[in-house]
Write a structure and sequence with these properties.
The chain contains 10 helices and 15 strands. By secondary structure, the protein is of the alpha/beta class. The chain folds into 2 domains: 170 residues, Medium-chain alcohol dehydrogenases, catalytic domain (Quinone Oxidoreductase, Chain A, domain 1, Alpha-Beta Complex); 138 residues, Rossmann fold. Strands 3, 4, 5, 6, 7, 14 and 15 form a 7-stranded mixed sheet that branches. A 6-stranded parallel sheet has the order 10-9-8-11-12-13, with helices on both faces. A two-stranded antiparallel sheet has the order 1-2. Helix 7 links the parallel strand 11 and strand 12. The chain is globular. The structure holds NADP nicotinamide-adenine-dinucleotide phosphate (NAP). The site of NADP nicotinamide-adenine-dinucleotide phosphate (NAP) has 32 residues, from helix 1, helix 3, helix 4 and helix 7. NADP nicotinamide-adenine-dinucleotide phosphate (NAP) binds next to helix 1, helix 3, helix 4 and helix 7.
């Protein structure tokens, strides 16, 4: 089988095609024939070598994907040959607290990921793909969608009538928009582009703010919420935008610290958290139980992930550069076969 690996040194130009034997499942493992994989910003950082952790090489990148189970190891009971399954980001975080998520069990670094024709996965690290989704759509769920669900639903216990601020229109943020809208919440989106704001409104956002034209976008969020602020923030901007998110959230509101697209440096005054009694938490993707709960909601509401562009998997470098450019809206996917 063919795989794309980061070999020798990190860098987008160091992804190489290698020929490897098709893996055999060991006890408690399954082997899937990969049909589609999706990119996350983390994958760009890992391949580039700018992620906060540098994993040993060679490494097959990419945590997200969908495939058909073609072989199961001894004692596997959760899935059967022929099932269509998605990978889970944390291969061994089945449910419960984050203490259960072993750092060594992340797919696409340090464990070999899905940028290969076949992949060996832990039987605890797969979920059945929602039936109404195509392979391309189902591949987008494991990291971005589960992160948004974990933030708003598992931890945030979102309720109808609440308000949600999502920053930008990347993968995590558009899933958060869709889950919030399906929960009956009011969604406000920020974006660098008026055209993307229009597309977000078509997906159910109530209003959009162009953060390039309005760098003090927290004021606009307060105006849109009658001065109250929002109940939930999907904070993917990082230290640069966090001070504004703190101003945009209501007293006792929730900020989910998820990403750092705007950079890793900034100044935060913790007294602003104290004065407003804001609940701030880090979100580490989510457990398999969150993934399964999310899939039920996706099926009941017949939600469809927003796919920006699909590339043949051998064009992974072009796809990574597209995500790196930030021009996309939603998810970028690689298709096999
Ligand atoms: N903690 C976790 O579990 C977890 C899970 C997934 C992702 N993440 C992190 O969350 C972030 C988003 O991931 P993703 O995969 O959704 O990324 P993505 O799809 O690459 O998102 C890119 C989009 O974000 C927007 N953006 C860029 N810079 C921004 C800024 N300074 N402020 C606000 N928005 C900005 C842009 O949208 P517009 O053009 O519309 O502005 C851009 O198109 C990344 O930092 C990623 O590493 C963390």
């Amino acid at each position: 089988m063919k795989a794309l690996v980061i070999d020798g040194a990190y860098g987008l130009d160091n992804l190489r095609v290698v020929e490897r034997p098709i893996p055999k499942p060991r006890r408690g493992e399954v082997v899937v024939r990969v049909r589609a994989t999706a990119l996350n910003y983390r994958d760009v950082e890992i391949v580039r070598g700018t992620y906060h952790t540098r994993f040993p090489l060679p490494l097959v990148p990419l945590s997200d994907g969908v495939g058909e189970v073609v072989a199961v190891g001894e004692d596997v009971t959760r899935v059967r040959v022929g099932d269509r399954v998605c990978s889970t980001f944390w291969q061994r975080w089945a449910a419960g607290s984050f203490d259960m998520a072993e750092p060594s069990s992340q797919l696409g670094g340090p464990i070999d990921g899905l940028l290969s024709e076949y992949a060996r996965l832990d039987e605890q690290g797969v979920v059945l793909a929602p039936e109404h989704l195509s392979d391309v759509e189902a591949a987008t769920l494991p990291c971005a969608a589960v992160t948004a669900w974990h933030a708003l639903v598992t931890e945030g216990a979102i309720k109808a009538g609440e308000s949600v601020l999502v920053l930008g229109t990347g993968g995590v943020s558009l899933f958060a928009l869709q889950f919030a809208a399906a929960s009956g919440a009011l969604v406000i989106v920020t974006s660098s582009s008026d055209e993307k704001i229009e597309r977000a409104r078509a997906l159910g956002a109530f209003a959009g703010i162009n953060y390039r034209r309005q760098p003090d976008w927290a004021d606009a969020v307060l105006n849109l919420t009658g001065g109250r602020g929002v109940d939930h923030v999907i904070e993917v901007g990082g230290p640069e935008s966090f001070a504004q998110s703190l101003r945009a959230v209501r007293v006792r509101g929730q900020i989910n610290v998820i990403g750092y697209l705007g950079g890793t440096e900034g100044t935060i005054n913790p007294l602003d958290i104290f004065r407003r009694q804001v609940r701030v938490r880090g979100i580490p993707v989510g457990s398999r139980a969150s993934f399964e709960a999310m899939n039920r909601a996706i099926e009941v509401n017949q939600l469809r992930p927003v796919v920006d562009r699909v590339y043949p998997w051998m064009e992974a470098v072009s796809a990574l550069r597209h995500v790196e450019s930030g021009s996309h809206f939603g998810k970028v996917v690689l298709q096999f076969g």
